[in-house]
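Protocol step 4 of 6: structure prediction from sequence.
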Amino acid sequence: MLEATIPHGRGEGPKGRDKGLGPLFVCHLFNKQGAIPLLGSILGFPWAFRTLSIFSRIRVRIDENGRQKKEDFILSMLRRSLESFVFALALLRITGRKSLSQLNYFDFFTVGVVANLFSKYISDPTQGREIFLAPVAIAAADVLASRMAIKSDRARQLLEGRPVIFIKDGQILEKNIAKMHYNVAEVLAALRYKGVYNLNDVEFAVLEVDGTISVLKKPQTSPLTPQDLNIPTYYKGLPSIIIKEGRVLLDNLRKNKLCTNWLTNKLKDLGIKDISQVFLASLAPDGSLYVDLKSN
């Protein structure tokens, strides 16, 4: 068996007669006579250099074709990944915003199938853009099912199920726990996540359709509120961001019926002369200003 790797380029063979063979080459020769006699016979004939030079050019061409195919595959994968990202973003905007805890069984099925289709499109260059028709159809079915769940109670129960009460009036309902496919240890762990360690404190406990646990404590164990003590409360509202990363948000200032002069004077009172030094500034409903400066 003969395996030779010869640098590609022009050079001179023995006695300056044969060209096309580089000055260096490596031969691994295995036969019954040994490597040295066969190597000597190759070096002794000019046609051997021509043969090895032809083999070298063929091998270089094969390597170049392989590299070209690899580069084309990488570029195709990058292009397909960007296309899938844009298409998936559009589908998410169409189907609506839900957190993972709010997904029902049909939503999980939809996400899994669409992700599999996108993965196949990215990794398989033979797949055309017509594969996107399947995610469109599945997303349309998901939107239709969501609309049906909003309009019809029966459809909602079919698609999402219904909540299961497993503690009622302080008593554990064993049949409902079996329907939940929970054991006692899992029930107790779920209650501890809600801050309940004593079952005597629980009036109702419900397993919601999204898998979360809701707990209603007994009145005698619930914390006091200002209403219980007849203490008046005041409106809090939400703070408004008026400076973000050194940039004044004029729309938020106008909504609070304020101007830039007021803001400048407020910052001067705090010893801040340059607004660009402010990383974040928010205005509370009571008129107090919170300011955070940029770190050096």
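Step 5 (inspection) to follow. The radius of gyration is 37 Å.
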